[in-house]
Amino acid sequence: MGKVERLMFKRLGNLIKGFxxxxxxxxxxxxxxxxxxxxxxxLRRQIAEFNKGLAAHAGVVERLITQxxxxxxxxxxxxxxxxxxxxxxxRDAAGEYALKLKQVQKExxxxxxxxxxxxxRYQELTKARDVSVKEAKEKIDRLARDIDxxxxxxxxxxxxxxxxxxxxxIGGAGDTLNRLEGIVEEERTKxxxxxxxxxxxxxxGDIEQKAAEQDALxxxxxxxxxxxxxxxxxxxxxxxxxxxxxxxxTGSTMGPVKEGE
Length: 261
Description:
Strand content: under 5%
Radius of gyration: 62 Å
Helix content: over 70%
Distance between the termini: 158 Å
Number of strands: 0
Order of helices and strands: HHHHH
Shape: rod-shaped
Structural class: mainly alpha
């Protein structure tokens, strides 16, 4: 493969990476909560890995502590043997124990230095872990609140946009409403005019005359009925007979009046 082909494949690879990065970036923008969940999982994994290393370091510290205690006991034993042989006059044995004691003391000092350094390092790592975890958790909590606030702001923006669109549409319907109002007013005026014309066409004189005729016919029929039944009627048109105060009551019977009675 020549230099030109390698350059072309490299550029193609960069282009593919660019498109992939853009695609992933759009997904992250559309679903930031998923990205935050991924970061939470990454944090938990990092903490677990860090704790494994910290546990291994703590194991080294415990091993040094055990070794230091063992050297302490060995020093005490060699010191006691050196003293006993020296008091007993065994200079050669006392010298050998004294030489071993010196070596053990030197080793003990080295182990103590290693233990102090390891313990200091353990405390520093623990503190660094706690600070880092606390900072990461605070950042995650802050991002979670920001995401919630972002959702609220987006919802409010969408509602405002919908309201603005509704106002525009309602305002655009003003001409139609005005035209409809004109049509309704026109039809109402026409109906009122027709009602007035129909009322004016009524002949109230004829109606009153017909009503008077019906009343006269009713009175005539009543008079004929009273005469046929022998009922006296008052002049005012009352069907009941009247009696004057102090006069004798005169009985009336239904039917024709018989002579001699």
